[in-house]
Design brief:
Layout: H1 4-17, H2 22-29, H3 33-40, H4 47-91, H5 96-108, E1 117-121, H6 124-137, E2 145-151, H7 157-168, E3 179-180, E4 195-200, H8 203-219
Parallel strand pairs: 2-3
Antiparallel strand pairs: 1-4, 2-4
Helix pairs in contact: 1-2, 2-3, 5-6, 5-8
């Protein structure tokens, strides 16, 4: 029994020379990682051993990355299911559409109700969501909608007009003259579709949205 540690230590030397990591040696010989490190710390590695260690290190990173990705995917699925459950419960009451619409308007809408409803953003999904909620919440005259594109020099106006018209379901004829930003030194973003300013000239609706988000804020303060 007294010779067992010596044999174990020699085996640790052999494994280290072959390019095994401190952890691998500890796992292989069933010893503490600190013991493994202490035993092999002065051993010089040849090129082949260093290459193996390097490969194992990258493999370790890869495995850790896969583990992390699986955990993240699992968490995202959990959060998504929770969100859907909550939203499905709330969605049963159509009056909530107005509240959602008002909260979005609070973030990206004009604060002067005399200008009517004005909502500006560059995110197509946000624009689409706001419009969907607005149309569900109020009786609207679609002919009163107007839209103004804010574009950079690298945009093709006809292409952006088609894109935003499809997103908003507002006819091209109801789009105002585009505003071209002075952006000579701006970095070109291939997926950037420009910014859109939505207008619906009804100060009454704008006022309703303002009072909704103001009272919502008071209730939650």
């Amino acid at each position: 029994m007294s010779r067992l540690p010596i044999k174990t230590k020699k085996k640790a030397f052999t494994l280290r020379v072959r390019g095994y990591s401190v952890k691998e040696i500890a796992d292989e010989l069933h010893i503490a990682k600190g013991t493994s490190s202490l035993w092999v710390r002065n051993i010089k590695l040849n090129k082949k051993a260093k290459e193996r260690l390097k490969e194992r290190k990258f493999l370790g990173y890869y495995r850790s990355s896969l583990t992390w990705q699986k955990k993240r995917a699992s968490k995202e699925k959990e959060y998504r299911l929770r969100a859907l459950k909550r939203l499905n419960n709330i969605r049963k009451n159509p009056e909530y559409n107005k509240i959602y619409c008002a909260i979005l308007y609070w973030c990206e809408g004009t604060k002067n109700y005399k200008d009517g409803v004005r909502f500006t953003n560059s995110d197509p999904e946000l624009i689409k969501t706001f419009l969907t909620l607005l149309r569900k919440s109020f009786l609207l005259d679609e002919k009163r909608f107007r839209a103004l594109m804010h574009l950079h020099f690298y945009h093709k106006e006809s292409r952006q007009l088609k894109f935003w018209s499809q997103i908003t379901k507002i006819p091209k004829s109801q789009f105002l003259k585009s505003f071209w930003k002075k952006s000579e030194h701006i970095r070109i973003k291939p997926d950037y579709q420009g910014c859109l300013s939505l207008r619906y000239n009804d100060s009454n609706i704008a006022r309703q949205l303002q009072y909704l988000y103001k009272e919502f804020a008071k209730l939650n303060n």
